[in-house]
Amino acid sequence: MATDPIGIYCTGASYAKGSKGFANINSVVSDLAAKGSTTGFATSSVGKGNNVIYGLAQCRGDVPDSDCAACLAGAASQIATSCNYPSDARIWYDYCFMRYKNEDFIGQTDADTGASVIFQTNVQELDNPKKFQKAVGKAMGKAVAATGSGGGLGRAKEQYTPFVSIYALAQCTRDLPTLSCAQCLSTAVSNIGGYCGAAEGCQINFSSCRVRYEINPFYFPLAGGRATTDMTKYTKVVVAHP
């Protein structure tokens, strides 16, 4: 989980090796990994003028501290190198998210640019796709309602059939005000139908919030073992809007 990103988005000119911007990126992502590993969330900034770098990191709210730390360490080592030190980069994992930019974005909602969408391709035959999508909507509505304020984690379970349940999760980055969080999650949930159809599992990861549902348990605490995701069963898409 800490070594395999589920989405990467990069834009802007690259900083040359040895430049102040290059060094500031390394400083910010290292600071984010160190601070975030103990609190699950961190912001940081280094430099000034054209070389200033702002950063944010957050782990999924249900993830154990050790997995959070491992995920953020992986993010710090890959986020800049994956795209040759650009001025704006974001990287998503199942367990965490990290972002940096040469402009101050802290506290601002970003619910479109660089969205990472993944959905299962091995969809079972559903007798009633519309009924399934309706059950997904109910599960996601419960998860969103459970987030509360301050970037809290929302988890929910909805019974689809006597033998199939839908598990849902929603979370915003902790820098967002309550209203902005609600708006971000609303946008993400409204896109589920268009991006995911009646897929058995899907997640939409914006830079300011994330939503996900599966027909198998994936969030902690998980009875009987460890939450895992087999990414070979998914299609990944990065949607970059102007």
**If you average the pLDDT, what whole number results?**
88
The CATH class of the largest domain turns out to be: Alpha Beta
Largest sheet: 6 strands, antiparallel
Strand order of the largest sheet: 7-8-10-9-6-11
The count of β-strands is 11
Order of SSEs: EHEEHEEEHEEHHEEE
Structural class: alpha+beta
Poorly predicted segments? none
Number of domains: 2
Architecture per CATH nomenclature, i.e. the level-2 architecture of the largest domain: 2-Layer Sandwich
**Helical run tally:** 5
Question: How helix-rich are the residues, as a percent range?
Answer: 25-40%
Strand proportion:
25-35%
Distance between the termini: 30 Å
Shape: elongated
CATH third-level topology of the largest domain: Killer Toxin P4, Chain A
- At the fourth level of CATH, the homologous superfamily of the largest domain is Gnk2 domain, C-X8-C-X2-C motif
Rg over CA atoms: 18 Å
Outline:
The chain has 242 residues and is an alpha+beta fold. It contains five helices and eleven strands; from the N terminus they run βαββαβββαββααβββ.
Record keyword descriptors for this entry.
242 residues, alpha+beta, 6-stranded antiparallel beta sheet, 5-stranded antiparallel beta sheet
Q: How does this model look, in words?
A:
With 242 residues, this protein is α+β, with helices and mostly antiparallel strands. It has two domains: 95 residues, Gnk2 domain, C-X8-C-X2-C motif (Killer Toxin P4, Chain A, 2-Layer Sandwich); 125 residues, Killer Toxin P4, Chain A, CATH 3.30.430.20. Helices cover 29% and strands 31% of the residues. It contains five helices and eleven strands; from the N terminus they run E-H-E-E-H-E-E-E-H-E-E-H-H-E-E-E. The strands form two sheets. Strands 7-8-10-9-6-11 form a six-stranded antiparallel β-sheet. Strands 1-4-5-3-2 form a five-stranded antiparallel β-sheet, covered by helices on one side. A hairpin with a 3-residue loop joins strand 9 and strand 10. Helix 3 runs antiparallel to helix 4. The longest helix is centred in the first third of the chain and has 20 residues.
